[in-house]
Specification:
Length: about 325
């Protein structure tokens, strides 16, 4: 656990997490984190969606699916348990008959459309769950959500449909006395994900928002991609075939964060910057007076990594990296 303490002047507490990648279990843990940690704001920093579609095939009253290489079968009475187990692994179940299953295998365009619809349907379920769990809480807990670079554009309408979700991508919103600037884009990656920009364009986009801040020193920057060469952006280098690059027989680690984000933080010096994107680079650092945090992600384990932060005036009074 990393920890930093400064003044104990009471301030606003917020809980941040990112990169749950379709895990309904982690989404539920995230929604519970506000009450558990006594925070008044929850911030989800992007990459909500998963990467796998699992057909659940009705074979004469028994439902069959292949989950992470394992063939599973359930009777109608146990179907809900099978669907829940698929969602816990960050994948999307879709119930089909044998003929439709064959079409999914043979028709790539139909498979893509079915996958996209499953993602949107699941995000709507998550939005409904957030509305249910956060309704009527005293004291109230505000929920701020942005997509990340991996998230398809189709989920945006689902996010804005929630009564208790503030969809704040590409906006400045207020959390107590603090302004929060949010952006879900990343710099270019080998994966050619939906929300990527060249560094120059990424800088211009963030800077256009930052110039609207009334008080940069007290602000929060909720930027999905971490800053370059900060220790929060270290990942294994990949070759053109997406295989790890080896140096002296060991995987070669390189910084993959954004130079644009680093430049913005050096120029604007917000109180706090929050990042995700690079799952294996859990940690915190300072850039001048700015506290920059990437809580990491281990979504396949069912463990939620996050960060509880307390802000007081124009500085971070304390932060704790959490896991559970």
């Amino acid at each position: 656990m990393f920890r930093r303490r400064a003044s104990r002047v009471p301030g606003i507490k917020l809980y941040y997490a990112s990169d749950v990648h379709g895990s309904e279990l982690l989404w539920k843990k995230f929604l519970n984190a506000g009450r558990h940690y006594g925070s008044s704001a929850l911030i989800m920093g992007g990459d909500l969606t998963g990467k796998g579609l699992v057909p659940v095939v009705d074979e004469d009253g028994r439902f069959v699916a292949t989950v992470i290489g394992e063939r599973r079968s359930a009777a109608a009475d146990d179907l809900d348990d099978l669907l829940a187990s698929i969602r816990r692994n960050g994948m999307y179940p879709v119930q089909v008959g044998v003929a439709e299953f064959d079409r999914l295998k043979d028709d790539e365009q139909y498979l893509r459309a079915t996958f996209d619809q499953a993602i949107v349907d699941e995000v709507r379920r998550w939005v409904e769950l957030a509305d249910e769990r956060l309704a009527g809480l005293e004291p109230p807990i505000s929920l701020y959500v942005i997509p990340g670079n991996d998230d398809p554009w189709e989920i945006d309408d689902a996010l804005v449909s929630g009564r208790n979700i503030i969809a704040c991508d590409d906006q400045i919103v207020r959390i107590g006395d603090h302004e929060m600037l949010s952006l879900g884009y990343a710099n270019r990656t080998p994966w050619d994900s939906p929300r990527e920009l060249d560094e120059e364009d990424l800088y211009e986009r963030i800077r256009a928002l930052a110039d609207q801040l009334e008080s940069p020193r007290t602000s929060i920057m909720n930027l999905h991609v971490p800053l370059h060469d900060s220790g929060l952006d270290t990942a294994i280098e990949l070759d053109e075939d997406f295989r790890p690059v080896l140096v002296a027989g060991q995987p070669h680690e390189i910084p993959v964060g954004s130079t644009a984000v680093r430049q913005i933080l050096e120029e604007m010096q917000p109180a706090l910057s929050l990042h995700g994107h690079v799952h294996e680079s859990k940690g915190a650092t300072t850039i001048g007076r700015t506290v920059a945090i990437n809580p990491g992600s281990d979504y396949t384990s069912g463990r939620l990594d996050g960060c509880l932060c307390e802000l007081s005036g124009d500085r971070v009074a304390s932060y704790h990296l959490t896991s559970g």
